[in-house]
Amino acid sequence: MNDHAPAKENFFVRRPIVAIVLSIILVIFGGVSLLKLPVSMYPEVVPPEIQVTSTYNGADAIAVESSVTTPLEQKINGVENSIYIRSINSNDGVSSIRVSFEVGSNLDMSNVLVQNRVSEGQAALPEEVKRLGVTVKKSLSFPLMLVALRSPKGSFDGNFLSNYALINVNDELSRIAGVGQVNMFGGSEYAMRIWINPGQLATMNIGVTDIIKAIQAQNVIAPGGKVGGEPAPPGTEFTYSLRLQGRLKTPEEFQNVIVKANADGSLVR
Q1: Is 0.70 topped by the overall pTM?
Q2: How far apart are CA 252 and CA 46, in angstroms?
Q3: Of 189, 182, 192, which is closest to residue 158 (Cα–Cα)?
């Protein structure tokens, strides 16, 4: 056995300075190419994805899967150039379906194809889901950046920080060139939650749908119209726009929502 390797294989071993200089030159050329080469010239290595998101308030993961995710998947399955579908159903009523396409597929065309399939399957969805809408967006399988928002002294809780980010931060990030979507993890938006007593509702012959309809009918923004608008009678010099009460904001205002009017004239609030 020959202990001595050929001379051409020992060239860089015997001359480490040459190897270091060549390595530095390669790194410099690579850095310059990274900054100057257009992004469109890089090869596609990750399958593009289309994300279909919907919300079914009040439903658990099993109900979301059976009533929302399954009907949509049955319609989306087999869309052109798709390779696989995966879905996530959460207990907060959110359904997320990710459709992956072959590398090199036109993502805009894939988005249109998935949107058409979703439109076909919306007829089988619950009314609550159709009212909130089903969103179809281009997506990535992994986030490009994670940003944490915190209160150094602990003076603000998670709900305040999440709503602050929703109002002041998300829009700014969405307007950055190259950012397609901004998702917020943790916390929740400010909202009014209505707690009901099923036994008491049963004694009054009131259903949950009656409460929902009452809130939807009385928690609205209605135009007030004008006083003195055209055509106005002679002598009218001023026109006034009426401003009515907008949406309900406080718990006391929600407590005064009229749910049912009884035959004796009494009201159930």
Answers
A1: no
A2: 53
A3: 189
pLDDT at 117: 93
What is the rounded distance in angstroms from the CA atom of residue 199 to the CA atom of residue 195? 13
Task: Provide the 3-class DSSP secondary structure of residue 118.
Answer: helix
Q: 253: alpha, beta or left, given left = phi > 0 and alpha = psi -120 to 50?
A: alpha
260 phi and psi angles, rounded to 5 deg? -155, 140
Q: Are the C-beta atoms of residues 159 and 187 closer than 8 Å to each other?
A: yes
Q: From CA 142, how far away is CA 266, in angstroms rounded?
A: 57
Sign, CA torsion 69/72/75/81: negative
187 in Cβ contact with 145 (< 8 Å): no
Name the one residue in this structure whose structure tokens are 């399955």.
77
Q: In 3D, which of 215, 196, 212, 224 has the Cα closest to residue 254?
A: 215
| 110 neighbors 83 (Cβ within 8 angstroms) | no
The whole-number pLDDT of residue 54 equals 93
* CB contact at 8 A, 209 and 217: no
Residue 89's pLDDT is 92
DSSP reduced 3-state for 94 = strand
pLDDT attached to residue 144: 76
What is the C-alpha separation between 98 and 100, in angstroms, rounded? Answer: 6
pLDDT at residue number 40: 63
- pLDDT averaged over 10-residue windows placed end to end, the chain, 269 residues: 58 83 90 76 77 89 92 91 91 90 87 92 89 86 79 85 88 82 78 86 88 88 79 81 82 90 88
